[in-house]
Structures are given as C-alpha cells and as structure tokens.
Amino acid sequence: MSEVEQSGFAAVAVAPDDGLAVSLSSGSIRSLVVIPAYNEEVALPGVLAELEIGVPDFDVLVVVDGATDGTALAARAAGAFVAELPFNLGIGAALRTGFQFAARNGYDRVYQFDADGQHDPGQLGQLASALEDGADMVIGSRFRYGAASYDVGRVRGRAMGVLRLALQLLSGRRFSDTSSGFRGFAQPAIKYFAASYPAEYMESVEALLLACYAGFDVVEVSTTMRDRAGGRPSNRNVKLAYHYCRLLLTMLTSASLRGRKTERLC
Amino acid sequence: MLTPRAQALVVLIAVSCIGFIVRMVRRRQIKVKYLLLWLIVALAASVLAAFPRGFDLVAQWAGVAYPPTFLFLMAIAFLLFVVIQFSWELSRLEDRTRRLAEELALLRLSADQTPPAARTDGSAAEAVASSDAKTATS
Fold it and tell me: Which chain A residues have a beta carbon less than 8 Å from that of B114?
C-alpha cells in the first residue's frame, strides 16, 4: 500500500497491523483519546499511565490549554501527543483542536477524557462498544440507571436539572447527563466537530444539542466517576449562575438556527 | 442658545479630538478607517456648533419640542451603532485568534512530534479544506 502525504504532515508509511492504533475489537479502527488539560501536572502522569495500561492501542493527545505549569512536559514524558495552545482558550477550543487533529490524521474514534483522573480508562470499552453498535456519539453518563451515585451538591444538581430540561425541550430527546465530559465520537461526528465544536463556556451541553440537530445518533451508557486525583474543579458556584444564563442563551441561539447549516456561533 | 464662547469651546474640542486621532493614526496605533469615522463626528459637531439654528429646524421638523434632547437622541443612537459594530468586530477577531491558536498548537505538534500517518481516503484533506473555506467566508 502507498501512503501519500496529506494535510501538511510528513507522511510515514505505516502498515495497518503495526500496532500503532488498533481498537479493542477490530484491527482497522484507529482511536484517539483527547485530554484537554490546564495545569494538571499532578494528576496527568497517573492518568496517562492508566491509559497506557488500559487501552495500549489507543493514541493519546493531550491538548494543553495555556497551562503555566509542567503539564506539557509531563504529557510528553509519558509519550502522548501534545498540542500546546499558546494561551488559555477554554475546554471547547481545546477539544476542537483535538477533533481537528483527529480529522486530519484520519482517526475513526475520538474519546474525550478528563485530565484529573475522574474517568476510568476501563470504561472506555463501554463507550467503544456503543460506537461499534453504530452510534455516532456516546456519552458516559454519571446519572443513568445503574451508574453509581455521583454527588454534585445541591446548587449544581438543580442547575443541571435545568439544563436537562432545556435540552429536552430544545432537542426533543432526553439525556440523563448533559454535561458529562466522558464521551466518544465516531467519524461523522469527528468531522462535524472539527469544524464546529462550540467554544463557549460549558460547551459540552451545546455540543450535545448541536449533535442532535445534526442528526447524529447519540446514546448514553452508564459510567461511574471517581474522585479527582488532583487539581480543582473548574466551576465555581459564584460564577455558575452567570454561566448557566449564558449557556441557555447560547442554546436558544443554536435552536433558532436549527436546520440551517450552523458552522459556528460567536 | 449657544453663546460665541460656547461655540468656540465646541469647535476647540472637536479640533483637538481630530488632532489626537490623527496623531494616533500617524503612529499606526489606529486604522485609517476609524480616522474617517471620528473625523465625520468631529466635523458634524463643529457644524452644529457653528450653525445651531439649522439643527433647531431639523428638531422641529422631527416633532421634538426641545431640540437638545433630539441632539442627545441622535448622539446616543450613533454611539450605540458604533459600539455594536465594535462588538461584532471583537467577536470576529476573537474567533480568528482562537483559530490561529488552534492551528499553531497543531503545527507545533507536527514539528515536535511525528504525527501518525494520515489516511489515504482524502478525509483529512477534506476536513482542512472545509475549515479553511469557512475562515475565508467569516
């Protein structure tokens, strides 16, 4: 077979069975774990080591979102691909960078994964098999029946209820966990989000809405979250109300553009 | 009614505004297109100061009993328009900066580490082309 040079990268001839990227079940599926990370040098090495053990065939891309600590160094030392954003742009932009990388390098699957150790690499298999069954996008839900209880606190819990309701009204579909950061994407969704992944705050909810509007088959599987291994939660209660209002507005904007080819919102 | 002294004051303010903006343009600190915008504003202010009668007539024609309120209304509407235009431009710039930052991150990655070989089915080139096209049209 001959590999031609594409997308500006120097092409390296790779035999399909060299073990560079082999999925759990099929040898031809290439998977990429995308980890947006901002100042996560404490937790990241452990997460990467776990991924190496849990899913050795998956490539890992750490998108360092303008970090001021040794996050990039830690990621490179662990052998992951590292894309360093020159300044902090938020998770949305970091993820879009990941989708761009995946689209340009022809990955079939992208898994969004947290840098702080909340997600269990062992559960990537559940996401993978949902995509295998034909889903375009799969969400690892913390609240679905069967998932261990995940305590988010009263204020956040209520706010998440509002989001759930809003999403149900706007998309006509019911999701138990609209803001989970543990997700998997198949190729159509990868290409779509490489161009249009929202960069607003709490983009995960809007991304879900956009995926519904784009006609993707979105499914949920139950997953459990662990305690954070390090770092701090990025949501603070003080700012939460403002951001939820902003997010609702963003979602309404998306809804009003439904049907049109929504490339992006700014 | 404006006294000659008040008129002179308005013209003085307008002229110094123009001087200040021209200086910034010459230092390449702001673009010529903004010079044009503020030149027109300063010119309009000077004309109004010189011939306040004319403006009174316009206000009367518009059905406003007290001409100064009409002036304020016009000024606020104009400034609102300018600010909205700036918001639009700021959003666009922010979006472009973000795209550039993402692109830079990916380029640095491809310079530092050898990325996996791209597929040969054209999907990669397609994705790049579509994102380029969008940047051009936005």
Answer: 10, 12
